[in-house]
Amino acid sequence: MNKTLLCCDWGTSTFRLRLVGTSDYKVIAEQQSAEGVAITFSSWQAEGSSNRFDFYAFKLKSAIDQLARSSALDLSNIPVIVSGMASSSIGMEEIPYAPVPFALDGSGVSCRIFENYNGAGSSLTLVSGIRTHNDVMRGEEAQLIGLFNLAETSAIDKEDALFVFPGTHSKHMRVERKSIVGFQTFMTGEIYNILSEHSILKDSIGTGGDFENPGNQGAFINGVESSESSNLLNTLFAVRTNQLFSKFRKEQNAFFLSGLLIGTELRQLADESYRQLVICSGKHLYGHYRLAAEALCLTENITFIQPELIEKATIAGQVQIFKALNNFYE
Question: DSSP string of 24-63?
Fold first, then answer.
């Protein structure tokens, strides 16, 4: 088993490449850029000549060479694993989704392996996502595999839990007997961006506010509480009237909208049955989801994963998938 692995998280808008230790998940060297799959796909279309896989493969190999130069390390003959949107219809090569139930030991992933990509015996493993009959996701399942293999998360219930991964498209994953048995996607972050940048509400919202400010938190909680309304389409207009009637400043109104949407996403959890609720958020949304859960009284049997562990989980998940595909067990 290789002591190191090149792990690439190739998302829609970002590219992140790391050289990591396979035993301790330590990041030895890394680089990231804004050349996500969307930009890369557009570049390939504009070129209009090369094979799509070859175009992406060249971009990835160039990034590996650049990382080798910046770190002064020889990265040849090190296997590469790529997860995220690289296996989508606009990625390197489209790979079918794995179905649920999906085992969280990494053994059930859908992938393609390209031999000798980074030197003799050093393959490129391209990992796809998972699907239900009406939903799909790419990337969060790898993070969840990683969480299940971190010593810091040993207290998590792996037999009956609901995992929430906030983001542009938030994912709620139901885990039973160490497998994902179902999940739902909530377009919370994307709807916020659309409303705050492209709707009539944009003139009622200010940006750059500090979430720790008591006034901003008060507006956020007000938004969470307002999500109790049965008709979100009506309640959303309160963002405009809040500003027109000077109820909130524009900065506070942004947090009201955030609270309204996050509250709408989380409110249904009060009626679901699970032994443990696990919220797995990065730094940007950690405080938002924690405060929303408290306002909705979801604090019984709840665990919040620290943001730094989410970063580590992505690496741990990719390493575990690589080990499972190569039948390596410590």
Answer: T--EEEEEEES--HHHHHHHHHHH--S-HHHHHHHHHHHH
d(CA 265, CA 267): 6
pLDDT tens track for 146-184: 999 898 888 888 889 999 999 989 999 999 999 999 999
| pLDDT tens string 16-36 | 999 999 999 999 999 999 999
**Gap between the Cα atoms of 4 and 207, Å rounded:** 42
Residue 300: both structure tokens together: 């019984």
Which is more confidently placed, 119 or 291?
A: 291
User: Amino acid identity of 21?
Assistant: G
Residue 7: alpha-carbon gap to chain centroid: 15
Q: What is the pLDDT of residue 329?
A: 39
- Distance separating alpha carbons of residues 264 and 322, to the nearest angstrom: 37
| Residue (of 301, 302, 288, 304) closest to 221 by Cα position | 288
In DSSP terms, 160 is beta-bridged to 176
pTM listed for this prediction: 0.91
Beta strands 179-186 and 170-176, pairing class: antiparallel
